[in-house]
Amino acid sequence: MTTEDLITKIEKAIIGCKKCRLYKNATKAVPGYGNPKAKIVFIGEAPGYNEDQQGLPFVGRAGKLLDLMLKTVRMERSDIWIGNIIKHRPPENRDPMVDEVRSCAPYLEEQLKIIKPKVIVTLGRIALEYFIKEAKISEHHGAPILHKDKIFFPLYHPAAALRNASIAGILKEDFRKLPKVVSGEIKPIELGGSKIRFVSQEQISLI
Fold first, then answer.
1. Which of 8, 44, 65, 116 is deepest in the core (most CB within 10 A)?
2. Number of independent structural domains in the chain
3. What's the CA dihedral at 153, 156, 158, 161 to 10 degrees?
4. Cα–Cα distance between 109 and 163 in angstroms, integer?
5. Using one digit for the tens of pLDDT, what is the confidence trace for 13-33?
6. Residue 183 lies in domain
7. What is the CATH classification number for the domain harbouring 117?
8. Could you give the 3-state DSSP secondary structure of residue 88?
9. What is the C-alpha separation between 162 and 65, in angstroms, rounded?
10. DSSP classification of residue 189
């Protein structure tokens, strides 16, 4: 199967998923969207209202800001892939619960295995701590982190930038570093003791 076929197969599984309570109140699942062969993926926390309505990630105000940021580094959505840890919107945009993350995580991890990105950009605290529990967005934003041959680039979430002008300035400056992170001009750091869990194919019941 091609990369596109594999990604489509996972998307279909996500759309029909009933592994946790979130599907009951959601309008649409949000599997993720973009270039399945992208060198860069952006991972957020969970869909919001607009994403739930359209079934696409980052299409609200935060998504529009992300698009503007991409243009500053001469990128388009067609160059990247965007997804979330959680594939259905939590009620009232609350934080995902532990069992919801546990149910949804295998889908994202399988998507990352198929896409094989060079850089994983985490958007916000929850996305960063999902991959690296010891990392703190306030300390590690804008600094690429290497762990087990994977490069993570933590950024503040665009929604936080919309609420706080100071964070908006930080996000803008950090975002400008992205091309240099991808090219290797900015070298990643390693955090001692951090662990990232990537489940095996046998643990994922998608097919």
1. 44
2. 1
3. -150
4. 30
5. 999 999 999 999 999 999 999
6. 3-29+41-75+102-140+149-203
7. 3.40.470.10
8. coil
9. 8
10. B
